[in-house]
Write a structure and sequence with these properties.
single chain
């Protein structure tokens, strides 16, 4: 089966502050509106260590051309989350009716998070999806299922998500799902 996402491992550069790690990736496919071959962008790992937690995670590109987000969520020290983020411009998702994800999960529930600012912190629009352990599944997520949140709290008076304003895309695992996790991402595209 052809995959819409074909990442190539480019470089991995640890950043020695606030538990951040950058993974440099580039697409060889150049198609399906996922990543443009001429762009080189970072996946950024942000764990609860920014608040004193001890959860661990990493992202890696496989030889199959997929992205794996894996690690271990710990509830110690008031922690309990791990996430990765990417510049949304590379995915060309600022159009259409929503996002299509094709992922292989571990039975955990993950959040897809979209940000309308380039900042590190701030409001995010999120929706959750429950994965099936060891099985590939496609999720069609229309824009209207995303709710505005800030640090886990709903923001009821936030403006509706406008696809044209999306600046960052990311995945997060939280909600007291303690222990090891692994999410393999094959497709991220607009529909």
């Amino acid at each position: 089966m052809e995959w819409a996402v074909n990442f190539l491992y480019r470089a991995m550069k640890p950043i020695v502050s606030a538990g951040l790690v950058h993974l440099m990736v580039i697409s060889a496919s150049g198609g399906s509106g996922v990543m443009q071959s001429e762009q080189l962008n970072d996946w950024m790992v942000v764990n609860d260590s920014v608040m004193g937690g001890i959860s661990r995670s990493q992202s890696e590109v496989t030889s199959r051309g997929t992205l794996i987000f894996r690690g271990d969520v710990s509830l110690e020290n008031n922690g309990g989350f791990a996430s990765i983020r990417h510049d949304a411009e590379a995915f060309d998702i600022n159009q259409g009716e929503g996002i299509v994800l094709r992922v292989k999960g571990d039975g955990n529930t993950y959040q897809l998070r979209l940000r309308t600012s380039d900042g590190f912190d701030g409001m995010a629009y999120m929706t959750e999806f429950k994965t099936l352990e060891g099985e590939w599944k496609e999720y069609r997520l229309p824009w209207d299922v995303f709710t505005a949140t800030y640090r886990g709290r709903l923001i009821p008076d936030a403006p509706k998500l406008q696809a044209s304003g999306i600046r960052q895309i990311g995945f997060l695992i939280a909600n007291k799902q303690e222990g090891p996790f692994e999410l393999e991402v094959g497709t991220i595209e607009a529909w």
